[in-house]
Amino acid sequence: MKLQHNIISGGLYWVQRWYFPLFCVVGAGVYAIQRWGDGGVLPRWVAHYLNDFLCMPIVLFIDRFVVRILKSDKQLNLPVIPILSLTCFYALYFEAYLPGINDRYTADPMDVLMYFMGAAFFYLMENVIKSSNGIKVMYDGGR
């Protein structure tokens, strides 16, 4: 059981450490293929939904980085309310407002779902920390 816990713990550490640069590279790659390459080579779910999923973890990671600098607190994590607020803003802006003023954008409920799934991923990755005894515990947002 201890070995299994170490494998899971090591896997979570790897995901927490590397998801931001990995998401940036994958998102940029999908964008580049769609913009300058043959977008038809991408599976439908990648072409239409992957970047929507990757968007919120990238935006929230950068947001948290800036807030940590402004507050001079390297341990600060974003609580649920700011995460949900920013996700709602992105969903409303890109899926309700922009489709009404620009033909390039289309309203898609699946995009909204992807934004919120990405935000949930960010929350789980960034608010799970190691306690002093090595067991993963949920971060309480500083309360």
- Helix share, percent: over 70%
What's the helix count? 4
Total strands: the figure is 2
Fraction in beta strands: under 5%
- N-to-C CA distance: 32 Å
| Alpha-beta classification | mainly alpha
Specify the biggest β-sheet: 2 strands, antiparallel
Task: Give the strand order of the largest sheet, numbering strands 1, 2, ... along the chain.
Answer: 1-2
Outline = globular
Overall radius of gyration: 17 Å
What does this structure look like?
This protein is mainly alpha-helical. The protein is built from four helices and two strands, in the order ααααββ. The protein has helices at 2-36, 44-71, 80-101, 109-126; strands at residues 128-130, 136-138. A two-stranded antiparallel ribbon has the order 1-2. A hairpin with a 5-residue loop joins strand 1 and strand 2. Helix 1 (2-36) packs across helix 2 (44-71), helix 2 (44-71) packs across helix 4 (109-126) and helix 3 runs antiparallel to helix 4. The two termini are 32 Å apart.
